[in-house]
Structures are given as C-alpha cells and as structure tokens.
Specification:
With 417 residues, this protein is mainly α. About 2% of the residues have low confidence.
C-alpha cells in the first residue's frame, strides 16, 4: 500500500475525487446508450441513432427530459423520507469508488506531483466496499415504505431480502481472495496478481461472485424488486423527475461498481490483459492502465446487458432458494477446500500435479451431478388423486363441477350423492 495515501495535498485529493465523479457520470451515460444499442442489435432493431454521433447524446437528452418533468409527490407519502430515499440510494454508489484503483502511480500533467490513480486505500478496503454498497438498499426500502403504495412496499421488501441473501454469497466469494493475497487492501490485491489473475485458481469464487453481483444490483433475470408484471414498477412506482433519475443513476453506477470489484479482485485490476504487458513493458505504466481497467469493466457491463436480453425473469421462490441452498453451501465448501490446499502447499503436502488431478476429479463430479435429472419426491395425496377415477357430472354438463354444500363425492362410483 502506497505511503502517499493520507499524506497528499488537499487539492490532489479534491482533483481525484472530482475526476472519479465525472468518470462515473459520463460512464453511466455511455452505459445507458450501450445497453440500448446492444439490446436493439439482439432484437434486430436500430436503437438510438439520432441525437449526436451514433446516438451517443440520447442518454443526455433523456436526462434533461427527466429533469424538466413535473416532480410529483404522492399524497400518502411520508414527505421527508420520500425525498431522502433516492439520495440515500445514490450516495453510497459513489462512495464505494474511494478505494478502487484505476492504475499505478503517475505524474499529474503540468505539475511535478506524483500520485497513485486511486483516491485512498486502507487495510480493510474490500470490507469498506461491502459496507458502503449495502447501505444503498436502505434507500430502496425507505422508498418503498414512504410511498404509501402496496406495490412499492412489496418491491422494497423484496429488495432487502434479495440483497441480504446474495450479499452473503458475495462476501464468501471474497474470502478465498483474501486467503491467496494475504490482505484486504485493493491496491495490494492488484499487486499480488502480477503473475496470475485470481479468476484462474479461484474460478468457483469468480463464478459465484458474478452470479451474486447480478442479484445484488437487481438486474435481469434477478430484477424481482421492480417486476413490472407483478409490482407495476416496484419500489420506484411513485417517483418521477429527478428523484426517479437518481434511482436510475444509482442502479447503473452500482453495475459499474460491482464490475470494478470483479476486475480488481479476479482480473488483475488495471494490469494489461492477454499478455500485452510481456510484449510491451510500458503497457502497465502511465495512464494506459486506466484504459485496461475500463475495458474490463465494460466486458462485465456487456454481460449484464446480454443476460437482460436473453434470460426471462426468475420466480421469486426459485431465486431465493438458489441463493440460500446453492450459492452459499457451495461457497462454504469451496472455502474449506482452499484452506486445505493452501495449508498443504505451505507444508509441502501437496504438489502441483496432485492439485491438478484433484481439481479434474472435482470438476468431473460436479459436471455429472449437474447433468443428473432432479428426483422429485412423490406426493401420496397427488398419487391418490391420479389413481382415483375421474368424476363425472350428472347435472347435464360435460365438465366436472364441485359438489354443492349438501352434496358429497362418492370416490368409488365417481358420482354425487
């Protein structure tokens, strides 16, 4: 961890904070355009292509339109909480970027000041990110409660249950990274991936995190808190104008935030991909790493969009069961396996060949278990209903109707008495 953190001039910290804010806002405008263009391509449509070159200014036009729309406050709302909720949802999305490293130490143009491309760092930086991002769900819950609407309330409750469920799996996926890197500092985790990125040795943790980050951000197919077919618009049903725009901004910034965390912990952070750093020594110096970092995050954004344009929304009970009965148990078993392997490698008990053989056997067993059909328990009552003869309607109709209160079914003869 650099000694510059905590010892820099105020203007340097303010400049970096301003740049982070500007990058996130511009990146959000780009991601909205990017999502609309990609989904349009998947659906054989054109997408936004009028405002600006390639339609790039469409997101800005939509933002201006939202700002100029009438700001409606519903009569049954708790006014103070109703106004504060979108602010509470948006601010933590920005705060999480305080510890995300964009690149190595660089010289600020037109000055002699050298500073790391990171606002700050701390020994528990990853835990700080988890804590800050979890605060954002309070804004969603409060928005649903304060709106005075049943649909909004149900959306807020769904969101709180969803975030709690999938944040547990997300936190467990980080444990193996901490075991390998020996630190929770984001800059030191990036430095520890100089030789190999952690998504290779910790592939199960990477997959679990990718699934959990989609659930954490309420994106399709896990967008249950704002399911328009069930809850109209979910927690933000009663919001309009800039307050709705803040929720929209928070959702897209959270997408970039979880993508940046995945890049930092599993994909080498700002380091150049595909062996470019070996062929070109300057690829990991200066401001070039910012390009690699943003490119990796854009790959995850494309994954979000791909899932939205491909998969249907899950049923809520299936979604919660998947989090508690699949992701969390697998995470716990994987953490135990990593602890045993790390201990064995330290003591010399395991060699590399043994680890590869064990990994191959485990992967084969997992693949076979996934291909086996699920055995559903037989229901005695359902079996009895299937075996019983179909009742016949002797009242003149061809469709079996339920008996009147004074009548009963004779199961043997299939008639009413």
């Amino acid at each position: 961890m650099s000694e510059a953190f905590g010892n820099e001039a105020f203007w340097v910290v303010a400049l970096k904070a301003l740049l982070v804010f500007v990058i996130l806002v511009v990146y959000t405008l780009f991601n909205i355009w990017f999502e609309r263009r990609v989904v349009a391509r998947m659906q054989h449509r054109v997408g936004p292509n009028v405002h600006g070159p390639f339609g790039l200014l469409q997101s800005l036009a939509d933002g201006v339109k939202l700002a100029l729309k009438e700001d409606i406050v519903v009569k049954a709302a708790d006014k103070v909480v109703y106004v504060l909720a979108p602010i509470i949802a948006t601010i933590p999305a920005f705060l999480a970027w305080a510890v995300i490293p964009f690149g190595p130490e660089v010289r600020i143009p037109f000055t002699d000041t050298v500073t790391p491309l990171q606002l700050t760092d701390m020994p528990v930086a990853v835990l700080y990110v988890l804590a800050v991002t979890s605060i954002g769900v309070y804004g969603i819950v409060l928005a649903g409660w304060s709106s005075g609407s049943t649909y909004s309330l149900l959306g807020g409750l769904r969101s709180s249950a969803q975030v709690i469920s999938y944040e547990v799996a997300m936190g467990l996926s980080f444990v193996t990274v901490f075991l390998y890197a020996g630190t929770m500092s984001t800059s030191e985790i990036v430095a520890a991936q100089e030789d190999v990125w952690y998504f290779l040795p910790l592939l199960p943790s990477f997959i679990i995190y990718v699934i959990a980050m989609v659930g954490e951000t309420n994106r399709a197919p896990f967008d249950l808190p704002e399911a328009e077919g069930e809850l109209v618009g979910g927690f933000h049903t009663e919001y309009s104008s800039l307050k709705f725009a803040l929720f929209f901004l928070a959702e897209y910034i959270n997408m970039v935030t979880v993508s940046a965390i995945a890049t930092t912990l599993f994909l080498g952070g700002w380091r150049a991909p595909f062996g470019i750093g070996t062929l070109w020594p300057g690829a990991n110096e200066g401001y070039w790493p910012v390009l690699w970092f943003l490119g990796k995050t854009l790959g995850f954004i494309f994954l979000f969009i791909w899932l939205r344009g491909t998969l249907p929304r899950m049923r809520y009970d299936q979604f919660m069961a998947f989090g508690w009965k699949v992701l969390i148990p697998i995470s716990l078993v994987w953490i135990g396996a990593v602890i045993v392997v790390r201990k064995g490698m330290t003591d010399g008990t395991f060699d590399q060949r043994t680890l590869f053989v064990a990994a191959g056997v485990a992967a084969a067993v997992l693949l076979v278990s996934l291909l086996l059909p699920e055995r559903k328990p037989s229901d005695p009552e359902q079996t009895a209903e299937v075996d019983a003869p179909a009742p016949t309607d002797h009242g003149g109709g061809s469709y079996p109707t339920p008996p009147m209160p004074e009548q009963t079914w004779n199961q043997k003869e299939g008639v009413r008495r």
